[in-house]
Design brief:
It comes from Saccharothrix variisporea. This is Choice-of-anchor A domain-containing protein. Keywords: Membrane, Signal, Transmembrane, Transmembrane helix. InterPro entries: Choice_anch_A (IPR026588). With 451 residues, the protein is α/β, with parallel strands linked by helices. It has a domain of 269 residues. Helix content is 15%, strand content 33%. The strands form 6 sheets. It has a 10-stranded parallel sheet with strand order 13-10-7-4-1-26-23-20-18-16, with helices on one face. The chain has an 8-stranded parallel sheet with strand order 11-8-5-2-27-24-21-19, with no helix packed on it. A 7-stranded parallel sheet has the order 12-9-6-3-28-25-22. Strand 30 and strand 31 form a beta hairpin. Helix 1 runs antiparallel to helix 4. The radius of gyration is 28 Å and the shape is globular.
Length: 451
């Protein structure tokens, strides 16, 4: 291959790779790191809904409720870690099963929290109606308020139980509002018997804005169909308006259907609604985010398969869907629009330089010159995706005649979130490619000289 062609190819490869890595190294989860499975015992792949052996353990929050969590009618269970900012109140209908499971459930992904960890956390109290039972077998009920009624699991009273999660509701509200402003990439059309979502066939983030209920003309169930969604794309559905309802039969126990295949990269976002209803006979697929802290969400579907995060209150169970209502623990691993502000703070850096002066009597005098750099704070709105405000603090670096030592400590405080190190991998790879290009250039020069 001619030298100029080879150089062009190598340069193009390096440039394209650098651009590609830059564009893909900023994957954003939900605020607070919510969404993915957490811990060392996560399964490589989450299994379909089943009642077999435990498939792994997940330390992440599966259901977050900023307000009160009310168990009603014939609701049966909530898999995974459940975190409630207000009260947890169980008062099911007479004649239904008297039990409600949290943490480990009979049927689901079978990826519960680790044994001995918190299955239910509340910022308020826990109450279980007479004749009923709250089952948290193998885990803790970690509550800030009082507890009454019959339950299993370890009782863990603690006035600060909810404190580690106190900032999540505000972060989720901010994120929900931000996601709703994302530019749409496709269309959503209610065709009465189904709502058809048609993507652009190419974007890694497929965004749909819906200003209607996903119900039939009579208010009953309908299908949900997606088209034009590239493999591996994240799907964000923003359902705008003061009240929204989904009533569907789409989504099944056995994986294989289209909606099931999108489950871990599909987010249903309700940014402003005060009333949200999830009804119908489906094993609903995808994660749900309700951003209005004044909202009440009522879930009457047989199953919701994905993370469920609401800043308001939740009623699990009621008319309008199946019986034995369940939340099943499945992660959200999609990449979402950037919503935060990156705040970079540089601490003062002091550099001491040794200055040597030689006199005629061979006496050496050393003076010290100290230069101090004033702290600088840079605030930038990210051009790429960011989940929420991130604070990065660089500790002071002192340079003397010895080699300098620099320590970088990413911190997250308040509602600010730490940035992961994923972006560095791209730069290391690009550096490697540049080394290869340089090596090729040297080889060509040597070859030319020999000729």
């Amino acid at each position: 291959m001619p030298r100029t062609h080879l150089l062009g190819v190598l340069g193009a490869v390096a440039l394209v790779t650098a651009v590609a890595l830059h564009g893909t190294s900023t994957a954003d989860p939900l605020p607070g790191g919510l969404g993915p499975c957490v811990g060392t015992q996560c399964p490589d792949t989450f299994p379909p809904i089943h009642n077999g052996a435990i498939a792994g353990y997940d330390e992440a929050v599966n259901v977050f409720v900023g307000g009160d969590f009310r168990v009603r009618a014939s609701a049966a269970e909530a898999e995974g870690r459940i975190v409630v900012g207000g009260n947890f109140d169980q008062a099911k209908d007479p004649g239904s099963s008297p039990s409600y499971n949290v943490g480990i459930v009979g049927v689901g992904s079978r990826v519960p929290p680790p044994p001995g960890s918190d299955f239910l956390v509340t910022g308020g109290g826990v109450s279980v109606a007479a004749g009923q039972k709250l089952l948290a077998e193998g885990g803790n009920i970690h509550h800030a308020g009082g507890i009454s009624g019959t339950f299993t699991g370890t009782d863990k009273p603690d006035p600060d139980a909810f404190q580690p999660y106190a900032g999540l509701a505000a972060q989720l509200t901010t994120a929900s509002t931000c996601y709703a402003a994302a530019a749409t990439t496709g269309t959503a059309v209610n065709q009465n018997y189904q709502t058809l979502f048609t993507g652009d066939g190419k974007s890694a983030l497929q965004v749909f804005t819906v200003d209607f209920d996903l119900v039939s003309a009579s208010g009953g169930q309908q299908g949900i169909v997606f088209a034009g969604i590239p493999a591996g794309a994240t799907v964000l559905v923003n359902l705008v308006g003061d009240a929204r309802k989904i009533a569907t039969y789409t989504g099944e126990i056995a994986d294989g259907g289209q909606l099931n295949s999108l489950r871990e990269r599909l987010l249903w976002n309700f940014p402003a609604a005060t009333t949200v209803e999830l009804a119908g006979g489906a094993q609903f697929q995808g994660s749900v985010l309700v951003g209005n802290p004044a909202s009440t969400t009522t879930v009457t579907m047989p199953g919701v398969n994905g993370r469920f995060f609401t800043t308001g209150s939740l009623t699990h169970g009621g008319s309008g869907g199946g019986t034995g209502n369940e939340f099943h623990a499945y992660p959200f691993t999609g990449d979402l629009p950037g919503c935060g502000t990156v705040i970079t703070t540089t601490e003062p850096t002091t550099t001491t330089t040794e200055v040597t002066t030689t006199t005629t009597d061979s006496t050496t005098t050393t003076d010290s010159t100290t230069t101090t750099t004033t702290p600088t704070t840079t605030t930038t709105a990210p051009a790429t995706t960011t989940t929420a405000p991130t604070t990065t603090t660089t500790a002071p670096a002192t340079t003397t005649t010895a080699p300098a030592t620099t320590t970088t400590a990413p911190l997250a405080g308040g509602d600010e979130l730490a940035v992961t190190g994923r972006g560095l991998a791209g730069f290391f790879l690009v550096g490697g490619l540049l080394v290869l290009v340089g090596t090729a250039l040297l080889a060509l020069v040597a070859r030319r000289r020999r000729s």
